[in-house]
């Protein structure tokens, strides 16, 4: 019985890990490809363009599991670290945080309407109105 319980817990933890995948999305006409380093630079305000020179406009979520997963797994920071990072840049006048939207539907809508936008949502939220750039 103990062995069955351990096996069940492992399966459940793996399922929740894969269910919370974060998907990076862009406008369907965007042909950019970004590696993880370039993606971090765009979302941390260190780069303002896609590799082809087109303007990159990052779109953030204001909260939720997709944001937590993105900040931790893609940016490599905790929520408090990312807040401190942007507070410092804003205070010194060296940067402005990406526009933060309240939910994934709003991110998808904005990205689907703006060829320069790049955002992220949970894998389950993706629609055919946007193009998938990467999954983490």
UniProtKB/TrEMBL annotation:
Keywords: Signal. Residues 1-21 form the signal peptide. It comes from the Bacteria. This is ABC-type phosphate transport system substrate-binding protein.
């Amino acid at each position: 019985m103990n062995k069955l319980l351990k096996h069940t817990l492992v399966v459940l933890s793996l399922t929740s890990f894969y269910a919370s995948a974060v998907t990076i999305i862009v406008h369907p006409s965007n042909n950019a490809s970004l590696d993880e380093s370039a993606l971090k630079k765009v979302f941390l305000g260190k780069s303002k363009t896609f590799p082809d020179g087109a303007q990159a406009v990052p779109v953030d979520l204001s909260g939720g599991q997709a944001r937590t997963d993105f900040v931790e797994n893609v940016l490599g920071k905790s929520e408090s670290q990312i807040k401190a990072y942007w507070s410092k840049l804003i205070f010194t006048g060296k940067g402005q945080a990406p526009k933060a939207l309240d939910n994934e539907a709003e991110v998808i809508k904005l990205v689907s309407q703006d060829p320069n936008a790049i955002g992220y949502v949970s894998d389950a939220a993706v629609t055919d109105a946007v193009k998938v750039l990467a999954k983490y």
